[in-house]
Specification:
The chain is an all-beta fold. The protein is built from no helices and 18 strands. The protein is globular.
Length: 117
């Protein structure tokens, strides 16, 4: 999941790591482990296949391959990959859903001059 497209990602939560609390940062994050709290960043967010986030996610560009139990908000694109399971509402500018992705919640398109935090 780490490649040239993820150049703005400077923080990684490893496969065996569990964060008990919210994560707030300026740059992107890639999660292989678990976060029991919200993720709030101005950068991109990537959740690997085995990743779990039990909290809300805010980011510039969000790709989910793992499990999210919380709302997702992005002024950019939200991508739900075929392995993901999302239970929560999604606010987005652009939404991509792969065949096989599991999603339970509402979708809302962000207007051009909106602010998400």
């Amino acid at each position: 999941m780490i490649n040239k497209k993820n150049k703005n990602i400077q923080t990684m939560i490893g496969l065996d790591m569990v964060v008990d609390g919210s994560v707030k940062l300026k740059n992107g994050i890639i999660v292989y482990g678990q976060i029991k709290g919200s993720v709030n960043t101005k950068g991109p967010v990537r959740l690997a296949k085995n990743a779990i986030v039990k909290g809300n996610i805010v980011g510039s560009d969000i790709r989910i391959a793992g499990i999210v139990e919380g709302n997702i908000s992005s002024l950019g694109q939200v991508t739900l990959l075929k392995t993901c399971k999302v239970k929560g509402d999604i606010t987005y500018k652009k939404l991509v859903v792969e065949d096989g992705a599991k999603f339970e919640g509402k979708c809302e398109i962000v207007m051009e001059n909106s602010n998400i935090s």
